[in-house]
Amino acid sequence: MRFLELYSYEIAILLSMVGFYAVIENDLRRVLAYSLINQLGLMVVGIGIGTNLALNGAVAHAFNDVIFKGLLMMSMGAVLQVTGEMRGSELGGLYKRMPKTALLCMVGAASISAFPLFSGFVSKSMVVAAVLEEDRVLVWLALLFASAGVFHHAGIKIPFFAFFAHESKFVATAHEPPRNMLLAMTLAAILCIGIGSFPTVLYSILPWTMEYSPYDATHVLAQLQLLAFSALAFTWLKLSNIYPPELRSVNLDVEWIYRRLVPDLIAWFRIHFGRLDAALRSRGVGLVSRAVDGLVRHHGPRGVLARTWPTGSMVLWVAALLAVLILARYI
């Protein structure tokens, strides 16, 4: 806990930097994965602050994140099932054939972006308020930057490139997902709106008792200003052709180590040490075979030790063993 408290500013900066990876990422599932890291960073900052309000905010946001991130994941899963594609560069225009999925996805996007009356707002604002109460101005600024990034890449990019943007080749054949998938997404969307509209229900089950109201003028206006300027920034970047295009590429990250490097190293060792391995195996098999042949030759059904020996030979062996025992006894 002390470590998290000391390095809460650095943690906030790191979770802000994750947004840059999400902005240039083409695979929308990976965008949501980066967004998950961002949300976990916010919870870690709340734990590092350590006050009752901050810890309650971290717990509440963890609870809400499961719901709205699950909603976004399910909506992208519906798109993947219908189109077989998840790259933003290949999607777009699906709102014409998948309006229900698009609407539910936008509910999840509004929740993760912390729009008022949605679940993300009533939990994220607790952590931000706790940071201000502890006079951590730099941490607060970093959290604001990270919040703008979340709205940018998860609140706007996910629904925009999946359902709007340009007309994709999948529009002609797209359709709504099965009813069970729509039902699951609808239940998650109802929870997102219900928790955001009636936060006292969630607050009543948090670990510490507190008096906190997210819907005061300061919180609402500050969040609306942040969202408005973030939306304007996205619009300006897009219209000015400055926004990074969705390229048909794979961005390198830490997962490249176990996705490509480790398998390539294993293949390299198998190629260059294959002969040595084969030689060692052949030598080992040869040694075992010779040992088995020796045992069979001496102890097998026709082995030397299995033959019937004359009485004289047995007397000779007994005398020899007796001589050995006598020598061992007196030496």
Topology readout:
Elements: H1 2-6, H2 8-24, H3 28-49, H4 52-83, H5 99-112, H6 119-133, H7 137-163, H8 179-197, H9 199-203, H10 217-239, H11 256-272, H12 274-299, H13 311-330
Helix pairs in contact: 2-3, 2-7, 3-4, 3-6, 3-7, 4-5, 4-6, 4-8, 5-7, 5-8, 6-8, 7-10
Question: What does it look like?
Answer:
The protein has helices at 2-6, 8-24, 28-49, 52-83, 99-112, 119-133, 137-163, 179-197, 199-203, 217-239, 256-272, 274-299, 311-330. 73% of the residues lie in helices and 0% in strands. α3 runs antiparallel to α4, α6 (119-133) crosses α8 and α7 crosses α10. It contains 13 helices and no strands. It has two domains: 2-253, no CATH class; 264-330. By secondary structure, it is mainly alpha-helical.
Question: Which runs of at least 5 residues are low in confidence (pLDDT < 50)?
Answer: 1-6
Q: What best-fitting shape do the alpha-carbon axes yield?
A: elongated
Q: What's the alpha carbon Rg, rounded to whole Å?
A: 34 Å
Give the helix proportion (percent range).
over 70%
- The amount of beta strand, in percent, is under 5%
Q: What does the main sheet amount to?
A: none
**Run of helices and strands:** HHHHHHHHHHHHH
- Give the termini separation: 74 Å
Give the structural class.
Answer: mainly alpha
Number of strands: 0
Averaged pLDDT: 85
**Separate helix tally:** 13
Our count of domains comes out at: 2
